[in-house]
Design a protein that fits this description.
CATH topology: Aconitase, domain 4
Structural class: alpha/beta
Oligomer: single chain
Radius of gyration: 15 Å
Largest sheet: 7 strands, mixed
Strand content: 15-25%
Distance between the termini: 31 Å
Low-confidence stretches: none
Number of strands: 7
Helix content: 25-40%
CATH superfamily: Aconitase, domain 4
Amino acid sequence: MMTTHRVWVYGDHVNTDVIFPGKYTYTLKTPEEIASKALEDLDPTFAAQARAGDVIVAGRNWGCGSSREQAVTALKYAGITMVIATSFNGLYYRNCINQGVWPVVCPGLVEYFQSGDTIQVDPENSLILAGGETFTMPPLPESVRAILNAGGLVPMLQARFQGA
């Protein structure tokens, strides 16, 4: 099913300290506090204006830097459901899956957008519509889709063990 999302566009090499500043790692506790600091040094408007269902479209090497889990949870708590990038840091990519934020590798897509534009995504058919062009998303293994559909690894495991 095709869904429409507002996009936030960022460039290459956005590191985890820019996504969620390390100075807050041990001081912020609630999802609201964590979300309020997402991307504060890169885009001061993001935290106040992000909405549930928004998507980030980025350039190369999104999430490089440390393995700071809050760099994903801050975006999740701000309402981000998917990050589409030309490429990801490997740890960040895995942290996205574990937190239930869909990481999509799609080279060239960032060129079609400005922040505030909309994107159409059909995850079931692995399609993205942008600027009159159709892009395909790499298929994910069923095990990864199960984690994403459950909202992350912990919710998936909780549901399995509660049903056991």
